[in-house]
TrEMBL record:
InterPro entries, alphabetized: Ankyrin-MYND_dom_contain_2, Ankyrin_rpt, Ankyrin_rpt-contain_sf
ANK-type repeats, residues: 45-77, 79-111
Protein name stated in the entry: Ankyrin repeat protein
Keyword Magnesium appears in the UniProt entry: no
Organism annotation: Coilia grayii (Gray's grenadier anchovy)
Top-level taxon: Eukaryota
PROSITE patterns: ANK_REP_REGION, ANK_REPEAT
Swiss-Prot/TrEMBL keywords: ANK repeat
Presence of keyword RNA-binding: no
Gene3D superfamilies referenced in this protein's UniProt entry, alphabetically: Ankyrin repeat-containing domain (1.25.40.20)
Amino acid sequence: MSASVKGDLRDEERELLLVIAAGNVQEASRLLGCKDVRVNCLDEYGMTPLMHAAYKGKADMCRLLLQHGADVNCNEHEHGYTALMFAGLSGKTDITWMMLDAGAETDVVNSVGRTAAQMAAFVGMKPEGGGVPWSV
């Protein structure tokens, strides 16, 4: 399957992004089974489906995308954000841990020189149930 180009989405991939926003995991699973859907497709901003799901705080969707081979370290976003950064911005520690467990790199900086930990601290992410996913 061909490499993704920013904004070059197939109809099924556009539908996948809508389904992610709606939180319909069953429909997302069906779409991910289509041969024309690239799990690491890029919207016009360079966001992957995993980035969308992480930012929207959709843990089940993130899990599904990772099971389908989503690249947790994709760094094509127009401002250099990664899925881990979007997880931090969502304020959802379970998604942050999921990204870390999937091998997310913690030392990547975005276009303004901030790491995922700094972005999470900016939005006031606090650990649920103890433990800190990273140090600032």
